[in-house]
Amino acid sequence: MAKRFEDHFSPQAADYARYRPDYPSSLFDWLASVVPRRGVAWDCATGNGQAARALASQVEHVVASDASWSQLAAASRHPRVSYVRALAEACPLRDRSVDLVTVAQALHWLDLDAFYAEARRVVVKGGVIAVWSYGRTEIDREIDPIVEVLYSETLGDSWSPERRHVEEGYRSLAFPFATIGTPSLAMTREWTLDELLGYIGTWSAFQRHARERGTEALTDFASRMAAAWGPAERKRVVRWPLAIRAGRLPGD
Question: Are strands 123-134 and 98-104 parallel, antiparallel or unpaired?
C-alpha cells in the first residue's frame, strides 16, 4: 500500500519560506560537477522551492514538485523553475528526461519504493539522484543546551517517528544506487534571536505541541533564550551540518 501524504507544513508555509535557511551554493556547484549534462533537474518535495531556485543557477530548467498547494503558493518564482503539484510517485515528467533528481530535507516523508521507481523512470542513463538533510542547530555552548532541552524534552514526543531518519543523516534509509562520494558541507546564517525563534516556530513538532498542549512551555523557552542571548539585536552564527547521499543510475 502506498504511503499516504501527510501535510506537516502547510499551516506554516509562509514562515517556512521566510525562516528556513538557504543551502550553500557550494552544494549546487558540486551537483553540477557530477551530472552528465546540465539540462533538466527534478526537485521533488520542493516545499517553498529553496533548492529548486538554487539549482536553476546550474541547469537549464528545474521542475519543482510538491504535494502541498500552500507550500507552492509561498514559493518565490524563477524564470527557469516550473512549480507543479504532484506526489513524489507520480511526477508529470517523460521517461528518461531528467539529468538530476534532488530531494532536500524531505526524503523521510516519501514512499521510498514508489519514489525510487519514479526516479528510475525519469532519469537519463548515467544521471544522478542526490538527497540531503540537516539536523539540529549548532550555535554555541551558551545557547545549544537550551535548544536541546526544547528539542528532546519539551517537544520529544511531538516529533513524528520519521524524524529519526533526519537525525541519522538518512544513513538507515534504503538508497539503492551506485554511491557517489559527497563533500562535507554546512549551512550557516547570522541570526538575531527573533530570527532563530521564527525558524524554530516552523518545526512540525513545535506546531503540534502548541496545538495539543498550548504555548506555556514554548513561551518559557523563549524567555530563557532571551536571558541567555543578550541584546535583542545581537547576531550569532547558526550552523547546520548537511548529510548528503548521492548515487548514479547505470549508464549504457
Answer: parallel
